[in-house]
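User: Please look over both lines:
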Amino acid sequence: MKLKWTGEWNSAQPVERTAFILVAVASLLNVFLGLLNYPVIGHDAYGHLNYLDQFTRLVSAANAYPRWLPDSFGGFGAPTFYFYAPLVYWVASGFHAIGFASPSALYQVVELAFSFLSLTTSFILLRQWSEKLLFSITGALLYSFLTYHFCDVYVRDALTEHAALTFLPLVFLRFPNKLQSISILTIGWTGLLLTNLPVTYLAVISIFVVTIANRSYKEIPTHVISCVIAIATTAIYLFPAFGLRGLIHQRHLFDMPMRTSQYGFALLDLFHGHFDWLRVLSIATIIAGVIAFIILIKNSDEGSRAWKWLIAVAVFFQIPFLSAPLWHIIPGMPFVQFSWRWNGVMLLAIAVIYSKDKRNAMSCVLIGLALVTILSELTLSRNLFVRPPLPINSFRVDGPEYAPKWTSNDPNEVIGIAQRRMSDPPAILLGLTAPTDSIILISKTPTQWNFSANVSRITSVRFHQFYWPYWKLYKDSSEIPLTPDANGFAAAELPVGQYTVNLKLERSQYEIVGQTVSSVGLTVLAMLLLLTGYRSTTKRRVNTSAPEETLIK
């Protein structure tokens, strides 16, 4: 490989070498920011710091899949991980187990891990399109570290979207062996489903565009089989996420305030004076895509045609005056939330086209993207010295869409209640009570609270917990019905007497069925991988021994 690299470097044109050098510099600066523990202060910073802190601590306390986050909303809790993809946080829990305790450090080590994994997956894809090692490495660096991917990590702090883009290249891989194709595609779709559903949705549309452009309809059954296995494998997450979505304020996924544009149109925002690196890096990626499309209008071959049209689709959906109506018409499109998410797909298409097309114009496109990225990196690096404070706020703001539906429909009111009531005791007796009446917390875990109660008459009690139907209250083995009060807190009527009550989080039927289906899906996937590996090993042995057999004959 060293000889191949040296030969390609020596034969490369100056503009191609310049493109590689600048892309490599931008990639190294990206990595250095992570290694220097760049402060997590972007758009989604507090959410991810909150999740990284709570999820990893819960896993370390022997809760393998913590769906309820007990410290969110001032300790009233949130059912966040019934609905939020868990893979990134399982990975973070692994790093937490080996000593990465700070949420900020966890963020950086996880994003770096997925960046290098993205480098690997994109390089594998690009090698299917290019015989030149130089172009494949340059394209993989571009996809994994530059412009919008850099923006995802350090500007938006969109950790799960960044992780999802790691798996995106896998769903475009093709192999002559159908079994191998199904295995790799299943891993790709499984990774996408367990990291970010909006990116998964864009991947489905992208595969549809590529299939139509290439007229490769025979590949559809392979994708369908892979998707079915992937859905089964991820059922432990998907079944509760879709089955229980009516129990939260789901519509806040689509009506969040986004400054000037409901669906995050960078072009529209820039015209309204919102000039920041999110908009600049997004628009730089759009411009690069437009140039790549123009280059290929008259010169694209059959292999580049699909990627050319994929760029066209990605650009179209980011032009607000043309595509905005379609965001309402196409089923599921509002769930994508931000039009700039298409830039992840477009970066991959640009990388593929560059690895395949050796024209100087594409090298100039990469040089431009690298320069913009380097400028943004140098500008943002000032935060390494300023070190803005990174406290995890005391009431741990969670996504408004994850507040149970019995809370206020106004996200600000939910946060306000959390701030005002966060110092309330674990349980409060309501109404007229005798001096001897009491309810005292004996012990507490993330999934069970134990109280000692002593009441002289039937008495109402309000717990320091948002109502969620899978929290159950028991006196011995008898269930005491829980109901939501006007603010969405869990409340109950305690019977007369002195006794112990237990507030327990129980599994929903969706979780139980999902876990069973996931066991089946994982078994099928493991068998596929083993069989694929066995066949590959056998084939290599046959190919290796063939010359010897011929010589003997």
